[in-house]
Amino acid sequence: MRGLLSRERIIAGPGFNRWLVPPASVAIHLCIGSVYAWSIFNPALIRLFGVVAPAADDWSLSDVVWIFTVAIVFLGLSAAFAGKWLEEVGPRAVGVVAALCWGGGFLIGGLGIALHQLWLIYLGYGVIGGCGLGLGYVSPVSTLIRWFPDRRGMAAGMAIMGFGGGAMIGAPLKDWLIKTFYSAPDYLGPLAQVDLVTHAGRRFARVAGELREATVIGANDVASMIVPGPEGVYLANTGTVGVAQTFVALGLIYFAVMLIAAFSYRLPAPGWKPEGWTAPDEAHRAKRMISNHDVHVDRALKTPQFYQLWIVLCFNVTAGIGVLSVAKTMMTEIFGTTLPGIVDGAFSATYVVMISVFNMLGRFFWASISDFIGRRTTYWIFFALGIALYVSIPYCAHRVSVSPAVVWLVYFYAATMVIFTMYGGGFATIPAYLADIFGARYVGGIHGRLLTAWSTAGVLGPLAITSLRDGAIASAIDDLAARVDPGAFEAAFGAGLDQLQALVAQKTVTVAKLMEIAPAGTVDPTSSLYNTTMYLMAALLGIALLCNAFMRPVDAKHHMGAG
Predict the structure, then answer these.
(1) Domain range holding 64?
(2) Out of 2, 44, 291, 401, which residue is the most buried by the measure of CB atoms under 10 Å away?
């Protein structure tokens, strides 16, 4: 087995067509890139007991978003290790281990969902699956850069565009599997026809003389249902959201595809270069800040350029990854109540797919463009344009809440799609940027260590967006509760305003349900839940812009052979 997976076994012979390598790279990245469609799982994971709506014992959005965060953290940590290991054992061995971790992580996660053990999902999908992400991510990048020294940016773009496009296939596949395995809970009837009791913040229905926990679906809740159904009362702990079965099916599919792709890898022979290609002259290298010298992977960590690029990647990723982790939820919350006839569950799922499309296209487009305008100039565009777009989104959210109109949805859609082209472009351009600054010899190892920035961003992004969102929700609920009539509140929830916090903790009281009894003319605060997050992301991009602006060539003392 060691011989079958060895680096020497996959050295390409004379006349090998280098264009046979990209499909294997893209296939692996399409599989692991489905992590970007994590938000498709969110609505199901927070409704395991309630099915149509979260029940008291269901996990919160903050609980499940952190699974995505843990996966990204372990992506960066494993990539930091795998980058140097890749140089020793070759991409085939790394790709096979990646297939085992990513596929196995889904299977363990599915078991955790079935047993309602959150720690098992964190272990399976987050830790083990995250290691599969990191191993699968680094294996194609340095391989393709070696095959395409004449187009480093395009090569990195080809390798990484599959990761951005993973959600394009993964999102509809996950959505279809969930709905295929979905089974609706028992429906008790319209609210007015069911005898409900509120106890310790929970709602119970009297069924055949027995109190059983129930979930109540109002007009504002229908848009967020996994499979639309009638308003009214449903029995908790009946039916299934189908997400556990989906995890198992995906684990088996991804393992098979990644294993086939890993065995398709080939490496160029030592000294190989494309026919008719000559290295660029010194004037061209100096203009584009392309080094003619190599820096050892361990030495690179002693240069300021490594940490400047670390901040550039970290803050660019932070600005996008938080939005990615809650993309479907964000679209529903900002536009679901203001434009209910347009924005429903299917529309939000399509939005996630389109994020993947533009993320993927941005990776190839911007990485290829960087071959002509330079990496540093490309990042100038990312940050300057990104700041303007992030700052404009809160204005868009405010306008749609005051005066609902499709134009604001169109602007939001377009702005976020441009943002995600640059988010993906940042990932695809960074390996070529590293090769320009540190040389191509150890780019795999240096790239792997730089991906610890992704791990950090995987914590900062979701932490910022969920904590700021939770604070905004708490403030909005307090404000709405102060506006509603106490009698209407007690009639709607079976308890007085003095029990507000208990009702909120048990998910009985939400912003959507309070808006149903709010005075006429009350502006729905849901669309403004993400405003503070957007301003924070713009500030982070400003810092990254400065780090990119001060980028300079590596001091000659760090070059291999110097001193």
Answers:
(1) 2-183+240-270+297-484+519-552
(2) 44
Extract the tokens encoding 408.
């604001």
What pLDDT does 152 receive? 73
Residue 490 lies in a domain: no
* CA distance readout (Å), 396 to 12, 321, 325, 461, 540: 53, 20, 21, 21, 21
The enclosing domain of 316 has a CATH number of 1.20.1250.20
Kindly report the pTM of this predicted structure.
0.72
Whether the pLDDT of residue 1 is over 60: the answer is no
Counts for the chain of helices (H) and strands (E), in that order: 22, 5
* Beta bridge partners of residue 41, listed in sequence order: none
Of 213, 181, 178, 209, give the one whose Cα is nearest residue 197. 213
Examine residue 365 and state whether it is found in any structural domain, yes or no: yes
Is the per-residue pLDDT at 304 higher than 90?
A: yes
Domain contains 135: yes
Whether residue 20 lies inside any domain: the answer is yes
Residue 249 pLDDT level (bands cut at 50, 70, 90): very high
> Phi, psi at residue 361, to the nearest 5°?
-60, -40
- The number of distinct structural domains making up the chain is 1
